[in-house]
Amino acid sequence: MPIPTLTTGRLLLTPLVAEDARQIQQLYPRWEIVRYMVATVPWPYPDNGAEHYVNNVALPDMEKGIAWFWTIRRREAPDELMGLICLYDVEDNNRGFWLAPEWQGQGYMREASIAATDFWFNTLNKSVLRAPKAALNSRSQRISASSGMRIVRTEKKEYVSGLLDSELWEITRDEWNARHVS
How far is Cα 21 from Cα 32, in angstroms, rounded to an integer? Predict the structure, then answer.
C-alpha cells in the first residue's frame, strides 16, 4: 500500500523521500533533538548521517512494509521540513518523532502524532501502539499522556546522552477510538 500524505488543521505529513535528507541533515544534528534518541544514533552526527539513514534504513524499511515515515511541514510552507514522525511494526517500538526546537511548544507534534496514531489504528488496523521514551523527555511524555497513553514498563536504556530511565507507553485501538473520533 502506498503511504499517503496525512493532513491536519495546520500540517502536511508527507511520505519521506530521498531528497528530504538534505533538510533533515540541516535540522537534526542538534543536542536538543538527539539527546533522548536511542544510542545507535551517532553523535557527533556525521555529515552524511541523514542521507545514510534515509537511504539505508528508513526507505528500505518503508519498501518492506514495516515502517511508515512522514516529514512534518506546515501547510502554508510545504517545502520547509520541521521534523519527522514514523511508525514501525516492531515489538515495543511503534512510533517515534522529532521536531526542530524552533517549532516545539506550539502543538505541532501533538497534531502530527494524532494523525500518525490514527493511521496506525484505523488504516493499518493495528491493535496496540507502544512508544518507548527517556523518562527525562517531558515533552514527549506530555504528548503521550494527552492522547490517553499509559506507562506499562520502566527500565534502563542507552540513549545518546547515556544510560537513562526509560518508559514504555501504550494505548490500544479501542482506547484510542473511544477518545479520538476520526
Answer: 19
Roughly how many angstroms between the first and final C-alpha of the chain, as a whole number?
Answer: 20
d(CA 113, CA 18): 22
Please indicate, yes or no, whether the overall pTM of this predicted structure exceeds 0.90.
yes
Taking alpha carbons only, the member of 59, 170, 71, 60 closest to residue 121 is 170
Q: Which residues contact 117 (CB under 8 A, 6 or more apart)?
A: 95, 129, 147, 171, 176, 180
Chain-centroid distance, C-alpha 181:
21
Name residue, grid cell 531528497: 19
55, 176 contact by CB (below 8 A): no
How sure is the predictor about 1, in pLDDT bands with cuts at 50, 70 and 90? confident
Which helix or strand (DSSP H or E) is residue 118 part of? helix 108-122
